[in-house]
Predict the structure.
Amino acid sequence: MLGSNRLIAISQFLTGIYKVLAGLHSPINLKYRLLVPHSFKRKHTIMSIKNMKAEHIAEFFRRLKTKNPEPKSELEWTNPFTLLVAVVLSAQATDIGVNKATKKLFQTVNTPEKMLALGEDGLKEHIKTIGLFNTKAKNVIKLSQMLVDDYGSEVPEDRDALVKLPGVGRKTANVVLNVVFGQPTMAVDTHIFRVSNRTGMAPGKTPEKVEQALLRSVPEEFALHAHHWLILHGRYICKARKPDCPACPVHDLCKFKEKTA
């Protein structure tokens, strides 16, 4: 039999463990679990980043616009079809890598019909330096066939139609709608997801939640180019492992506490 004092001590110990575990899974911690790199999360369980104020969001984009008035996609393309193909190929790959692979390809293959004539094996020869090229080649050939059969060989100007194409998700559809058709969409990739959460501009646990938060918070005058400004900012300044805060033009507006300067 355990003595009463020992039973009380065990009970208190178990209660303490329960409280710790409950704290780790509280809504506060879940909300900010994805805000920072794993190395930082190991040291700090709870983040308390506040949402950025509306006037600061407007100033954030005002400064980015001053530095780069007309931001462009870094993918190289010649028409809506080649952009669609380039974005599909860019999943889990860099824009630089995709551009190297498609440079010669797009010189001669720039329509769905020409892509079908090239065929899956021919396409693989062009894109074999890109990750997941086998799956991507299958998807490009299938989407080319769908464009010919269902859309008169034209890239549709509609998100619901775009996401029906093989290899095309919401992010890819948003890129095409923004770059080709001039729609103020928010294509949330890993860079935008990080910047939106880290700065407090549009916190969200999923890309779609961040997308919706951005659509609500970005001023209309900046909406068309917002996703390019955020991508470029995340790619070259607000980097994942070590953000270049000394070079950041909006560091004073950012809510991230662990700045590098």
About this structure: Residues 18-48 have pLDDT under 50 and may be disordered. The chain has two domains: 4-43, 51-261. Residues 4-43 form one domain. The radius of gyration is 23 Å.
